[in-house]
Amino acid sequence: MKDKTKDFVKRILFGIKNKFIDKDIINEFHKTYYNSNVWQFTEWEGIKVYKYPSDLMLYQEIIFKNKPDLIIETGTLYGGSALYMARLLDIIGNGRVISIDNIKRDFPSHPRIEYINSNSVDISLIEKLKKECEEKKVMVVLDSNHQKEHVLKEMELYSELVSNGQYMIVEDGCINGHPVCPSFGEGPYEAIIQFLKTDKTFKIDKRIETKFLFTANVNGFLKKI
């Protein structure tokens, strides 16, 4: 077992040093990590986040560099990611989070967060958000229903709210065999591919996606150009 571990580490380090990554090794590790369910117990200030720790670091880098005035999140779940992003905005000293979910819970309170109880693709909600986005630098995080049709609808609606130079992050493109959860069916990954066939205002930022070797958000770091 020790020899196998040493060989694994050696191959990873060799790949990084030589700008070559053994994708099979990364995918196998990704599947092992995902299937362990340890990511379901990631917390921020005691609140479940349901994100990979490495992806949270990517969020930090994106938010600090781009300093959005408004972050719109679909899929609040327990509120951990909304609270995390609000704390990052505290550090910057600017910005708000609007987090949307169709289920009401006792979400963590923070002066920078507004929670909205709604279906994320409700047209009246989108009209309200358009007004909130006026003259602001807007970033969007899509992390609600992961079925392809719903994700694609969200992308079509929320892409219009994203400011040039900011990101629309589509979560969990890793499912449906990319490389995890192969039996899920078409989801975020397939929605992204279809969306980009007609929308030329966004580009996948592979530099961010591959920085820590693997991510839940495969093809999901979309920068508006």
Textual characterization of the structure:
- With 225 residues, the protein is α/β, with parallel strands linked by helices.
- The protein folds into 2 domains: 1-36, no CATH class; 41-224, Rossmann fold.
- It is 41% helix and 16% strand.
- The chain is built from 8 helices and 9 strands.
- The chain has helices at 2-17, 23-36, 53-66, 80-92, 123-132, 148-158, 188-198, 206-209; strands spanning 43-44, 47-48, 70-74, 96-101, 113-117, 138-142, 167-170, 202-204, 221-224.
- The longest helix is centred in the N-terminal third of the chain and has 16 residues, at 2-17.
- The protein is globular and about 60 Å long.
- 36% of the residues are buried.
- The model has no long low-confidence stretch (mean pLDDT 93).
Summarize this, please?
By secondary structure, the protein is an alpha/beta fold. The chain has helices at 2-17, 23-36, 53-66, 80-92, 123-132, 148-158, 188-198, 206-209, and strands at residues 43-44, 47-48, 70-74, 96-101, 113-117, 138-142, 167-170, 202-204, 221-224.
